[in-house]
UniProtKB/TrEMBL annotation:
Protein name per the record: EAL domain-containing protein
UniProt lineage: Bacteria, Pseudomonadati, Pseudomonadota, Gammaproteobacteria, Lysobacterales
Organism: Stenotrophomonas aracearum
Subcellular location per the Swiss-Prot or TrEMBL entry: Cell membrane
Domain EAL stretches: 23-278
Range covered out of full length: 431 to 708 of 708
Amino acid sequence: AKVAGKNCYRYYSRAMDHAVERRVHMEQELRGAWERGELRLVYQPIFRTRDRRMVGVEVLLRWQHPTLGTIPPSVFIEVAEQSGLIEVIGPKVLRAACMEAVQWPHSVDGEGMFVSVNVSPRQLRGGELPALVADCLRDTGLPASRLHLELTETAVIGDEMLAAALLDKLHRTGVKVWLDDFGTGFSGLSHLRQVPVDGVKIDKSFVADMQRDPDDLALTTAIIAMAHALGITVVAEGIEQEVQFDLLSQRGCDLAQGYWLSVPITATEVVEMIESGR
Ligand code: C2E
Ligand code: CA
Ligand code: CA
Ligand code: CA
């Protein structure tokens, strides 16, 4: 409170300079991070609610920097998106995920696990994604049915004509497309009719409070009912408590993901989990 307005301004401005500097530095560091082996993939298991069997995983990127430490994707993905670096890193993640998944043993009931890869809005520009996906599948031999792509609701809803054409091309490669962070984009359930997706992932912000916030519970219930009416799979993410899992499975939510079920694990641990028949 002792600080005058003018000093305040100078303080903020210096703080802002600092933030910009850090960002530029981070961007420079991120540029060679893949080649230096600092970026690695972890896998968060996704379970069928019906019998709680692991049926697939979501790929999540981690950046282990030698001096900056572990930088979470919530920080560096945004830098990668704004700088355009995601257009270089994204395809590498996709290819690496396919290479890994094709080596996984099948589960006891003979089914291959799916691998779900996040695709940034920027990767949808230019229209190269379907060809990239086809290349990755061909080069690695991963069956298309085992690859899922997670597109954010906002990226897809932005331009529906474009989205419909893109989704159509993606579907022709045989992969499945899920809308990520569903419910946060204000697009409303009616858009599900226009965009041909295979599934929606209920955003973790709705799951977090669903056991005590009647609005969140009502919304989640409505998403599940609506999606099922349209023949779309529903995945819930961010499940941290048993009560959330129970509420979701009572409502027919198909798939479940969250710390209560499993935190993200390494590729080696994925194989161990499949082999132990979980
Ligand atoms: P997302 O796609 O919504 O991924 C789910 C995030 O929630 C992950 O954080 C995951 O670790 C976290 N999570 C999982 N279970 C729980 C839970 O029970 N409670 C809570 N509170 N969180 C949980 P993470 O790994 O930090 O990733 C953050 C975001 O970074 C992702 O959000 C995704 O948007 C982005 N991201 C991560 N990897 C990639 C990637 O390879 N490519 C792109 N384009 N984006 C990525
Ligand atoms: Ca995701
Ligand atoms: Ca999400
Ligand atoms: Ca709420």
